[in-house]
Each structure stands twice: as structure tokens, then as C-alpha cells.
Design brief:
mainly beta, Beta-galactosidase, Chain A, domain 5, 9-stranded antiparallel β-sheet, 6-stranded antiparallel β-sheet
Length: 342
């Protein structure tokens, strides 16, 4: 049985539990509702930043009401230009939403999960009131099968994350959400690892990381469908036309011995950003790190409208994703290409 949620240092919350002889531990911070540590039997599945302050590179943060960048930190709503805080001063863009500096409230917990809650009040740049909750739950994994939506093909232990958003405004609110975990496999160096992103199209990013189009990945260096060493991957890259497995998208980081970490997400997360940080401060020192960021809309969505979900007054939006130990390659479920729907 999985049990135990205890306060950790400062604004940290610690989940810890045992199931079938496997010990799962997670640390979540109230700041940005961020996943700061995840281990299974002592093996780190995300870069540990539980005691690193400030959190480096938005580590583990929830990104809302939009993920990634908004060009020029401005967008237009009903003919009125809206200005947003500049989060990427080098390029002058807004970045990663409005909640990076927000301490969420603890709304509740039970033996194996905790729920954080916050309310985003209207502002000149985003004039909507949203109530957001994020629930982290320890996930013991299962033997599963190819049709098991929660664990297609049978998967290992980890954590699952549930997001619920309610629009408390009088008007429909444009919304998108992302997450910013840095995946790892214990202390394995990145140059030994292979990343698989089952995506048929890559975003064409300009020098400020704003999409200017898309390209098929076939025959290009952006083709990660068969796996590619991290040393061969661009520092910034984005993907769409994601394939689905068991009703979900699955991204996989794998070591030479077959040990793997998978990030799975609902199909609403139709885009993913990959970011390689060469100097990333962790609890175990500075090292190269890899962020794999599920997103429900692409960069610049507030300006382009692409991928935005318009939540009506009083209506709700929800989505799930998680991180787990991956199955061996031979036991992975088959994939099906699904056309991206904007």
C-alpha cells in the first residue's frame, strides 16, 4: 500500500510510499506547483532540485495560462492589444505563463496524493479569472496492455498529474497549459542517452524560438521517431503531429542498457518542446539537463490562436500527464499516427 505525505523543508511537500517492494518518492513545491524530485527505488527520473533555490530553468513548473513564448509580450483580444510581463528579456517575449512566481495553496491530500490550488485574478494582459488545481499522485504502475489508457503496454512506477481549470469569468477565456520537467535516468550522463519523440512534424523556430512554420521530420535531423542521442539534438526544438499509443502520447528517454523513463500525456498535449540546458544547477551539482515539455498549444498560441482552448464562463478544462519507468523496448505497445487537430 502507498502511504504518506509529509511536509518537507520550506514550501516543499513530500510524497513517499511503498508498493510491491518498490519505493516511490516525490517532492513538489508550492512555488509554481512544481515537481522538484521523483525517484523509484532511489533512481532519479527527473533532475533533483528539491533543495536548489531558486528553481533553475522553471524546473517542474506548471505553465499557464499559456506555455512557452508569446512574441513581443503582446497579443490582441477583441481588437485591443494586451501587454504581458516580459519573461524572456533577451528576445523581448513573454514566457511560460503567469504562475512561475506563484505559491499555490495546499487544497488537500490523502495517503498517496496531494492537491494544490490557486486563483489567477484578471490583469491588463490577461483579463480573466481562472481557478486552477493540480493533483500529484504516486503511481505504482501496472502490467497493462496495449489498450490500457493509463499504462499502455505495461509500465513502471512514477507519478501522475491531473490539471483542472475552471473559468470564473463572465467571458470565455483562451487557455493553454504545459509542464516543464527535466527528465533523467539516475546520474547517467546525457551523452549516453537516447530520446524518442514520436512526432511526424517539427516546428520551424526563428532565432527567438518563435515558430514560423512546420516541416516533415522524415530525412532530417529533427526525426526522433527512432531515437536519437542527446548530443545530436538541437538545444531548442518543438514537435507536433504526435503519434498516440494507447490513447496517449509517450516520449521516451533511454539508456544503453534499456533502462528508460517515459513522459506520457493525454492527447490534448498535441505539442512538445525539447530543451537542452548545458549548465543546469541540481541538488547533485551542475550538469547538462534535458527538458521535455508537454504543451496543449504551441509557442505563440495567444497571438496565433492555434491550439487554444476557449473555456466558457463556469466551464472546466482538464488534462493528465505523468512520468514513469518505461517498459523494455520489446514490450512497448504499437503506435498509430494521428493527425494533429488545431
Amino acid at each position: 500500500m502507498i502511504t504518506g505525505m509529509t511536509p518537507s523543508t520550506g514550501a516543499r511537500l513530500h510524497l513517499r510510499g511503498m508498493r510491491d517492494g518498490r519505493l516511490i518518492e516525490a517532492v513538489v513545491s508550492r512555488r509554481a506547483a512544481a515537481l522538484r524530485l521523483l525517484t523509484v527505488d532511489g533512481l532519479h527520473l527527473v533532475e533533483p532540485t528539491a533543495s536548489t533555490e531558486p528553481a533553475p530553468g522553471a524546473a517542474g513548473a506548471v505553465l499557464a495560462p499559456w506555455p512557452n513564448r508569446v512574441e513581443g509580450a503582446r497579443w490582441t483580444l477583441d481588437g485591443v492589444e494586451r501587454r504581458l510581463p516580459v519573461g524572456d528579456p533577451e528576445n523581448g517575449h513573454a514566457n511560460h505563463g503567469l504562475l512561475l512566481d506563484r505559491d499555490w495553496d495546499v487544497a488537500g491530500h490523502d495517503d498517496d496524493a496531494l492537491t494544490l490550488r490557486t486563483v489567477l485574478e484578471p490583469s491588463p494582459g490577461y483579463p480573466f479569472r481562472l481557478e486552477l488545481t493540480t493533483r500529484y499522485a504516486l503511481d505504482p504502475g501496472s502490467t497493462g496492455n496495449a489498450g490500457d489508457a493509463a499504462n499502455p503496454g505495461g509500465t513502471g512506477a512514477g507519478v501522475s498529474v491531473q490539471h483542472d481549470v475552471v473559468n470564473r469569468s463572465a467571458e470565455a477565456a483562451p487557455f493553454a497549459l504545459g509542464a516543464h520537467p527535466y527528465l533523467c535516468i539516475g546520474d547517467r550522463p546525457g551523452d549516453e542517452l537516447t530520446l524518442t519523440i514520436e512526432a511526424d512534424r517539427a516546428l520551424v523556430l526563428d532565432e527567438g524560438w518563435i515558430p514560423r512554420g512546420e516541416r516533415p521530420v522524415e530525412g532530417t535531423r529533427w526525426d526522433l521517431r527512432g531515437g536519437r542521442r542527446l548530443t545530436e539534438i538541437d538545444p531548442h526544438s518543438g514537435y507536433t503531429a504526435l503519434r498516440r499509443r494507447g490513447g496517449q502520447v509517450v516520449h521516451r528517454l533511454e539508456a544503453p542498457d534499456g533502462t528508460a523513463v517515459e513522459l506520457w500525456a493525454d492527447a490534448v498535449f498535441g505539442w512538445v518542446q525539447v530543451y537542452r540546458a548545458p549548465q543546469f544547477a541540481t541538488d547533485r551539482g551542475t550538469r547538462s539537463a534535458l527538458a521535455v515539455e508537454p504543451m496543449s498549444a504551441p509557442p505563440n498560441a495567444l497571438r496565433t490562436g492555434r491550439g487554444l482552448h476557449w473555456i466558457g464562463p463556469g466551464e472546466a478544462w482538464s488534462a493528465r500527464w505523468g512520468i514513469r519507468l518505461g517498459p523494455e523496448p520489446s514490450s512497448r505497445a504499437s503506435v498509430t499516427t494521428i493527425e494533429e487537430r488545431a
